[in-house]
Each structure stands twice: as C-alpha cells, then as structure tokens.
Amino acid sequence: MYHTWMRFLTPGPVHHRLGLVCLGVGLQYGPLPTVGPRTLDSHVAVVVSSGTGWYETPDGRRRTVTAPALLWLTPGVPHHYAPDPVTGWDEGFVGFTGPATTTYTELGYIEPDRPVVALSDAAGPRAVIARIARAARRDNPLLEVETGAAVHELLVALRRARADLAPDGDPVLKALARDAFKPMSVADHAGRHGMTLAELRTAVRRGAGCSPKDYLLGIRLDRAKELLAATELPVAAIARRVGYDDPAYFSRLFTRRVGMPPIRFRAQEARTVPGGWSNQVPDPGDLPRV
User: Fold this and answer.
1) pLDDT digit string (tens) for 92-109?
2) Which residue(s) pair with 94 in the sheet?
3) pLDDT band, residue 274 (cuts 50/70/90)
4) Distances in whole angstroms, Cα of residue 179 to Cα of each of 216, 219, 224
5) Is the bond preceding 68 in cis, omega lying within 30 degrees of 0?
6) How do residues 26-61 score in pLDDT, each as one tens digit?
7) How far is it, in rounded angstroms, from Cα 290 to Cα 6?
8) For the chain, where are the alpha helices, taking DSSP H only?
9) Strands 116-118, 89-97: parallel, antiparallel or unpaired by DSSP?
10) Cα separations in angstroms, 187 against 110, 190, 198, 200
11) DSSP per-residue string spanning 68-99
12) Is the pLDDT of residue 277 over 90?
C-alpha cells in the first residue's frame, strides 16, 4: 500500500513575472506506481529521502536510484522511473516553471544532463518541500508568492546537498576567496593550485556557476563597496586594497559592473561607523534593543 498527498497550483501571469512559480507539491511513500514513460512541459524536482528504485534514460539505459537522491525531470526530456516494487521509497516533489529556470540552469543549479543526482543528505531539501506543502493550503492569501519564493530556496538547498560538492564551498573556491585581493591574474591563481587554466575554469564553474574572473571580481567589488561605505579612504587606496594597481581601471570596472562610479556609490551608501564595521555576522536574536 502506498500513500500520496499532492496539491497543484495555477499562478497568474503577474506571479510568473517573479521569475519562478510553484506548480505543484507532493509527498509520497511506499511501493509507488511506475512513472512514465512521459514528457513534461515544466520542471519537477523529486527528492528521494529513503529507499531504492530505478530511472530509465530516453535511450533505454536503466540505472539504480539509491536514497538520498534527486531526480531532475526537465521540460521536453522523456523520463521513466519507479521505486522498488516491494519496499518502495519516500519522496517529495515540487513542480515549477518560470524564466529564472534558464539562469539557474546556466549557473548549474538545474542539471538537465544529470537526471539522477546523489545527495549527501535529503534533510535540507525535504524541510523546504514541507514548508511549500504547508504554504499550499487553499486559504493562504500569500499562496503563490510564498510557494514561489520557496522554490528559489529549494534550488539552493538542492545545490548545497549535492554529494559531489562540499556544502560550504570547494577548497579551490575558498583559496581563491582568501587570495582574491592579491594583485594576481587568473593564470597566477591556477599556477598556485597546480592547475591549468582550463582545470581552474572547470572547477570554479562547477562550484560557483561562473568563471574564475567573475568569481574574483565579485569578491573584490563587495569589499570595495564596504570600504567606500565605511571609510574615507581615497578611491586609489581602495583599488590597491582590493587588488588593482591602476585606480582608473578599477573605477571603470566598478562603474561597468555596479552601474555607477565609486564616488557616487560612496555618496549614496556612506555610513559613519565608529570603531569600524564588525566582521562577525550578528545573530538577530542577540541584537540589543533600543
């Protein structure tokens, strides 16, 4: 005997403009029926938290699915799968669509070419699915927005739970972040890690969804913004602190990426911070009450 609970949603056009909308959510366990062969017009993430089964690719190859695992059902790609007919499995699924799926795919959070992904732990994704299920009650006035926002959170939780990626960052990414403010080229960083440029690009793209240059640039500009907002250091000094010997080049780069020159950013965001900013992330529960 299997058990199934599911709910389907129909967000309106204005909700689709948020980028992602939830089309359905379900929780099932036991020896569930075989799914497919079929093809969908939208995305579905199926999180298998316990049990085993199989997934068959469009070319007829069948592979074993062992929990914890993720099944990516992507638009236009035929799929066919089932849990073990005797023991079954425990799954939660979320259907979603929207223009943001293209960007999430580009960043590597959605992987159409990897329909079966091993997870290190299904607890995080399952907790998000449970929140979507609770938000999907019919009398919820925030239904479409709350469930849509949770789909973004689910994609992050699935990325963090992938067994082939460290949840808190790849060692290469951590090393790049540590050395980001040194005046080093991408080739210099690759050499420091004993990697070719191609190997470094592959590692950063796999871990962060972007090129090494963009990864380093983001870290440098984040720090430059903090220094512009919290100090009176000249722009040239800030440029040097974040790894640029040429302040004019830094200013052009900052303007192109941020949309305004450093001086204008400082005028808008400057804060008087006696004693400087803290590097420790505060716990909201510990903040003093005025």
Assistant:
1) 999 999 999 999 999 889
2) 25, 45
3) low
4) 9, 10, 15
5) yes
6) 999 999 999 989 999 999 999 999 999 999 998 889
7) 46
8) 13-16, 100-106, 123-135, 143-161, 171-178, 186-192, 197-208, 212-230, 235-241, 247-258, 262-269
9) unpaired
10) 29, 5, 10, 9
11) SEEEEE-TT--EEEEE-TTT-EEEEEEEEE-T
12) no
Over residues 222-248, the mean pLDDT reads: 93
Residue type at 16?
H
Residue 107: both structure tokens together:
């960043």
Sign of CA dihedral 259, 262, 264, 270: positive
**Distance set, CA 2 to CA 30, 51, 69 (Å):** 4, 13, 20
Kindly report, residue by residue over 260-273, the tens digit of the pLDDT: 999 999 999 987 65
Q: Is the pTM of this model over 0.85?
A: no
Confidence of residue 227 (pLDDT cuts 50, 70, 90): very high
By residue count, the chain amounts to: 290
Selection from 17, 112, 31 nearest residue 73 by Cα: 112
Cα dihedral 15, 20, 23, 25 sign: negative
Contact (Cβ atoms closer than 8 angstroms) between residue 49 and residue 91: yes
Please count the other Cβ atoms lying within 10 Å of the Cβ belonging to residue 5. Answer: 11
Q: Which amino acid belongs to residue 275?
A: G
Contacts of 79 by beta carbon, 8 Å cutoff, 6+ apart: 35, 36, 37, 38, 39, 40, 55, 56, 58, 71, 73, 115
Q: Is the pLDDT of residue 282 over 70?
A: no
Instruction: Give the whole-angstrom CA distance, residue 270 versus residue 233.
Output: 12
Distance (Å, rounded) from C-alpha 138 to C-alpha 151?
18
Would strands 89-97 and 43-56 be described as parallel, antiparallel, or unpaired?
antiparallel
